[in-house]
Each structure stands twice: as structure tokens, then as C-alpha cells.
Amino acid sequence: MAPPSEHRPDSGAIHAEVLAAAQRLCSRLDWSFRLIDVVRDLPHLKEGSVRTHIVSRCCVNAPANHPHRWPYFRRVGRGRYEILPAFRPPESEEPRALRETADGDWRPAPAPDARPAIHAVISESEGWYVAECLEVAVVTQGRSLDETLANLRSALALHLDDEELERAGLQPAPRLVVNYETSAVSA
């Protein structure tokens, strides 16, 4: 295999997009990432293609099953990889602090400008209350306001995890701010 300096990614190729996504998801303090995070970061690509590139084509400690390989990553655990030093972004980038998650994993801390709340609007239509979030793609409904709020909290819990909160520009454990819209004049 040629030295890393001879393996520079071509922009537009899947392996280049996979490397760029991994670089975005990592911090200088911890160059590891989860395979599923890269898959989620590249929804426009086929999941199987992204997985194949990470676990085989771009991984130096994977079996040599493919004629074209790029030495970008090393497998460090189940579903976890690290970017090799030759493919880490320049040192001039500002490091992001890490924080420990509830499951004992370490993830980058939220950006200082992350929003502390998710906003939702509830409106009534034909006997149903419909809740729609403004920062994230969550919509739910219920027959009463209480049922709608309970459904909204459940839908948000299913939709968001730590990584999704960060991508949405939200702080961990954001508040839920709900506005209820109704007609000022009853018909």
C-alpha cells in the first residue's frame, strides 16, 4: 500500500465524502467516531455504500477484500473507528471540548451558541390538536392538548439523541416551549 501522502481524496467520490463526514464528527481531542454517525450524516448516499467504505475500503485493519483502498481509518472497537493522523484536519482548527454522556461515552461539547429550547406550535383543526416543532422535523397530534403534549414529548425523545441535538444547534436537555394558536373570534 502506498504511503498516506499519495492517497488524497478526490472531491465528489464516496470515500472523500465519508472522510469529510468523519472529520466533521470528530474533535482534535478524540479522533474516534461511530459508524452510525457517519451514515446519518450522509443521508443522500446509500447506507450500504457508506458502511462498506468505513468498515472495509477505508479501514487499514480490515481484510483486503477490495482492489481500491484508502488508509483513512482504523477500527478501535465495535462500530467505532478513528481517523489516522495523516487524514486529520490541520492543527490550526480550534479544539472542541468533550463531555461525558449518560452511557459513559465522550462526545464533543455543544457549541457555545447552541439554543436552549425547542419551539413548537399547536393548532386545532377538525377536533384534532396538531403540534409542529420549528427547529426539528417533528409533527404529532392528539384529541386533547394534554394528549398532544404527551405525544410531542414522546416523538421528540424518539427523534433526538445527543448527536441530533448538536446537529440541530441545540443544547443537551433543551426546554420545550409551546405556543397554542387559536382563532380570536369563535365561528
Silhouette: elongated
Number of helices: 5
The counted number of beta strands is 9
Beta-strand fraction estimate: 25-35%
Can you write the helix and strand succession as a string? HEHHEEEEEEEHHE
List the uncertain runs. 1-11
Question: How far apart are the first and last residues' alpha carbons, in Å?
Answer: 75 Å
Gyration radius over CA: 21 Å
Biggest sheet strand line-up: 8-7-6-9
* Percentage of residues in helical conformation: 25-40%
**Structural class by helix and strand composition:** alpha+beta
Nearest-integer average pLDDT: 80
What is the makeup of the main sheet? 4 strands, mixed
Can you lay out the helices and strands and say which pair or pack?
Elements: H1 14-25, E1 32-34, H2 35-41, H3 47-57, E2 73-77, E3 80-83, E4 98-100, E5 106-108, E6 115-125, E7 128-133, E8 139-142, H4 145-159, H5 162-167, E9 170-181
Parallel strand pairs: 6-9
Antiparallel strand pairs: 1-3, 2-3, 4-5, 6-7, 7-8
Helix pairs in contact: 2-3
Protein architecture, described:
This protein is of the alpha+beta class. Helix content is 27%, strand content 27%. The chain contains five helices and nine strands, in the order αβααβββββββααβ. A four-stranded mixed beta sheet has the order 8-7-6-9. Strands 1-3-2 form a three-stranded antiparallel beta sheet. Strand 2 (73-77) and strand 3 form a beta hairpin. Helix 2 crosses helix 3. The radius of gyration is 21 Å and the shape is elongated.
Keywords:
alpha+beta, 4-stranded mixed sheet, 5 helices, disordered N terminus
